[in-house]
């Protein structure tokens, strides 16, 4: 079905398209003329057997799909709309061991256990360590920038790309944005300091496989995932033997209804390493870019630090552009008949710019309130478990930046990540000022 005004073959999960931009004009067209639209996909591009999905672009419909798991399954085809074409059916089946891809009642059981680690109290418990880490990350970037001009810069970031610092400029992504989300996950699950570099390496290998620049093949990504799962399982087994009063010990203490098995813990850590890493990193990178391209908002932030800023950064960035569900029965949505088994793509990036809900959505406004964005999901059972942690990380890193590097300016256009469901920036050169 062709949508008038959209180019032939338009697909908002096309990595080549997302490499260049988020298709906001096309989303606007779809919201107006075909809010539930069948997007045909050429055979063999997605890892799935069928050849298309319903693209859902209005805020109200994205919420509806998210909050009706009985009609829209996360498990039948997993939450990712377009896997790399090389993924096998077996690999897709393995993905279903991750809670993001589970349905109730299995999902409810796991969620009830793991949310113990994400209570307001647990997040408050991490705050002071994360504040120091945020401060250290920014002061290191500052020191390196001050030493700039020094031949060769100060070395790379944790994702293996160079973070060199010629002439006072540095790559904000590798120097700053990458660091705190990884350190927060390590802190959360109590990874010993000496093992952190390994966790960071595995995490980074798992997220960038759609981007040829990183030269991460499907095999390297899968191997990193297996190594990370193995590591987490060992950590769980250790804590089961010798509980340490940390979150891992709580989640695995004694196997049974109320706890995770070591395997389940392994897959949970795998999910955290993807869900909590690349997402928050991109919120921070887009947030910095937004501030530097809207200097009046940066000035306002430095002056007033509004508590609403982090939510607007997430709305503006919408790091997860879309996830999918699969219809469990014939159902109607937006005037379309969705057949049982059809895949349904829910486009958070479009919902977050829906003028039915947001006044002047094209404005970056850190005082926006209310801000009912769907960047963390549409409010159903899978709503982002790490939301409070992510918001805390964003607050802490921008507080540190405003204090330590208030004069930052842009030193180049951002280089975008090639990916099918992430709005990613892989390089953002800034000048310390
Ligand atoms: C789920 C976004 C940070 C852990 C999700 C979902 C989205 C999302 C869109 C799916 C919601 C749905 O299907 O309804 C984000 C964004 C983040 C972020 C934009 C940063 C700005 C984090 C962090 C963690 C985390 C820091 C943990 C360290 C999870 C988990 C799930 C999830 C475990 C799966 C929940 C479930 O299936 O029940 N996130 N997330 N996320 N997120 Fe986040």
From TrEMBL:
Protein name: Cytochrome P450 hydroxylase
Single GO BP term: cholesterol catabolic process
GO MF assignments: cholest-4-en-3-one 26-monooxygenase activity; heme binding; iron ion binding; oxidoreductase activity, acting on paired donors, with incorporation or reduction of molecular oxygen, reduced flavin or flavoprotein as one donor, and incorporation of one atom of oxygen; steroid hydroxylase activity
Keyword Oxidoreductase among UniProt keywords: yes
Lineage start: Bacteria, Bacillati, Actinomycetota, Actinomycetes, Kitasatosporales
CDD domains: CYP142-like
Similarity annotation: Belongs to the cytochrome P450 family.
Entries under SUPFAM superfamilies matching the protein: Cytochrome P450
Source organism (scientific name): Streptomyces laurentii
Keyword terms: Heme, Iron, Metal-binding, Monooxygenase, Oxidoreductase
